[in-house]
Amino acid sequence: MKASVDSDRCAGHGDCVSTCGEVFGWTADGFAEVILDDIPDEYKDLVVKAVHDCPEHAISAEG
Ligand code: SF4
User: Fold this and answer.
1) Which CATH number is correct for 2-62, 3.40.50.2300, 2.60.40.10, 3.30.70.20, 3.40.630.30?
2) Does the global pTM surpass 0.90?
3) Residues enclosing ligand 1, CB less than 6 A?
């Protein structure tokens, strides 16, 4: 699985980092970023949850 955060949409609420801190981290500017290029299967469900729960619809994932 691959995921990305649209930096134009992210408002830095941090829900995704709370949901799955193994995949989502913070940029120096206080926005979210994906910290794993290739997301292991064990995190897929949490990434899907993060996609659905992001208040700004800033996260996309596929694979
Ligand atoms: S949940 Fe969405 S808006 Fe909030 S930090 Fe994560 S990507 Fe950004």
Assistant:
1) 3.30.70.20
2) yes
3) 5, 10-16, 32, 54-56, 58-59
